[in-house]
Amino acid sequence: MPKGAVIIDTERCKGCGLCIAACPQHVLAFSGTLNKSGYNVARVENPDACVGCAFCALTCPDIAIEVYREKTPVKEG
Amino acid sequence: MGERLLLRGNEVIAESAIRAGCECYFAYPITPQAELLEHMARNMPRLGRTFIQAESEVAAISMVYGAASTGARTLTSSSSPGISLKQEGISYLAGSHLPAVIVNVVRGGPGLGNIAPSQCDYFQATKGGGHGDYHIIVLGPSTVPEAGDLTMLAFDLADKYRTPVMILADGLLGQMMEPVELPDPIDLDSLPKKDWATTGAKGRDPNIILSFDLGPENLKRMNLALQEKYEQITANEIRYEETATEDADIVVAAYGTVARIVKSVITMARAEGIKLGLFRPVTLWPYPYDALRALSERMDIVLTVEMSAGQMWEDVRLAVGERAKTPFYGEMGGVVPTPRGILSEVKKHAH
Amino acid sequence: MPIDTASMNKVFERPASLTDARFTYCPGCHHGLITRIIGNVLDDLDIAERTVGIAPVGCSVFAYLWYKCDALQVAHGRASAAATGVKRARPNLIVFSYQGDGDFASIGTAESIHAANRGENITVIFVNNQIYGMTGGEMAPTTLVGQHSTTTPDGRDPALFGYPIRFSEMIAQLEAPVYVTRQALFDTKHILDATKAIKKAFTNQVEGKGYSLVEMLSTCPTNWRMSPTKANEHVKNVVTDVFPLGDLVDRG
Known about the structure:
The structure holds 3 protein chains of 3 kinds.
Chain A: E1 4-8, H1 18-22, E2 28-34, E3 40-44, H2 55-59, E4 65-70
Antiparallel strand pairs in A: 1-4, 2-3
Chain B: E1 4-8, H1 9-19, E2 24-27, H2 34-43, E3 50-53, H3 57-69, E4 74-78, H4 80-85, H5 87-95, E5 100-106, H6 122-126, E6 137-139, H7 144-161, E7 164-170, H8 171-175, E8 177-181, E9 208-209, H9 216-236, E10 240-243, E11 250-253, H10 256-271, E12 276-281, E13 283-285, H11 289-296, E14 301-306, H12 312-320, E15 328-330, H13 339-349
Parallel strand pairs in B: 2-3, 2-4, 4-5, 5-7, 6-7, 11-12, 11-14, 14-15
Antiparallel strand pairs in B: 1-8, 6-13, 10-12
Helix pairs in contact in B: 1-2, 1-7, 3-5, 10-13, 11-12
Chain C: E1 8-12, H1 30-45, E2 51-55, E3 70-73, H2 79-89, E4 94-100, H3 101-105, H4 109-117, E5 123-128, H5 158-161, H6 167-172, E6 179-184, H7 188-206, E7 212-217, H8 221-224, H9 228-242, E8 246-250
Parallel strand pairs in C: 2-3, 2-4, 4-5, 5-7, 6-7
Antiparallel strand pairs in C: 6-8
């Protein structure tokens, strides 16, 4: 399972592309799909590469991205 | 009520504001209201209240906007050119339903004019010197004690209707000294709470102070709400005074210090057999059209006397119409009409 | 394979101090980002309930819609004066003004300088994108030499219209301000630095320390006629040469 995951609110997304450029793992890309406002919204293209760094969400000017990170496994013993 | 003190008009306005619970005062120096500023500078800080000499009248009116938004009783004062600078801010105050008191100690104009008394800002005050469909309540004191009383009233009316109120004084009133009995300070805690104010949105929805909506239908509704408020004020708050009008056939319409001069003229005229009376509006907005109209039914002449080129004269003509003759006598540039000068005008028209 | 977010930690979500309203800003405009940062700071310091925001005239005229806080929308340029009025009347409130380069550095010049000079205990956010957005792309006092705008169609000529004004440096000359800094948002590192700066600017007010100013070099992709990513590069490569980043005053 990838270390991180992001969910994009496609109706808030304005297709500005900043998240796509910010992601060091190339997780995101333009979807080619227009939302109700006519924006070419971002989508998660490579979910397996996501490490949950949140760079995308940090730069999103519309707070359209939520970021999840795997829970740290508890050490045994 | 306390002792009678000999006080200057500017100081009485300032001290009355303090006793009315004025919490914040922001102003820029300008003659002839310097004593008002100085009184506030000496007294507001020692009472733990806010005094700021702002960087300009423009800044001052926006400081008023901020303080008024929190519900604080707030005052600014200036004179003609400085009041011109405040017009945008006054429009914002009115549009945002904010209470505030603004004192204009009118001086000669236009432009830099001079520092002598005048009444040439009547249009600016009553016809809305700023942009948009709005009014402010305008009170015109004619004596130093009345200036104090109307200052107290101004804060009450401002709060009652959430609207700016102007004290339209002049350089003569601001500078003259008269015996005054100052009122007791009011208890601020006795005032109604302002649940619309920006006091921190704990436990409630945010309060937004705003005069803006991009949607025409929405802004129309906001304007209708303002107009409704002005109708209420007009229905409830008109104030005027009639002197010796019961048997008069010629009446002078005048306000402020000119009206007090006319009171002397009444004595002089009646000594010469002229039945002269005085109609003195106290609220210049809302204007007592109905009362003046009714009075003019039994008058031959309604002579308007002002220290201007004839500004209130337009409202007099609006009220009187064809019911009586409506001549005008005015002095401009800071020249104050004399009792003899006014009497001579009265005689010109009286028979 | 579907992502099972239920078994993960949510590490980034909308700040609680912001409303659900969708921002009216253009795609890629930094106003939304600055607003998000302010929301985070209000959450961290737990001050939203006693914060009053002052919205200017400009693209951010709607700023009062974004925060779960009391707010005022004020006349153009006067936010620093209005903030003064609010703070002096009710010192327990946390007051911030949010102003663009026209509002703060052109029509509001006097109010901006004098609120700083009096050391008002307020937090001022100055969004500098070197252009006027709302009114369609005119020159700002901070517009760069040679920069195109609708009122400098051939590029800003200093012989006619002077040079971009470094307002924070002017404010930094005054004795009273306790924190004056210039930040930018063109990459993650700078976004995190900017976040620290805004947090410090609000913390200073909470601790009663005095006047704090955060100038934020921002983008206007629409009026710069650039994509949001190109606009970020422009800030990084060109704008920071004219407006250096960093703390000019830090007496905290």
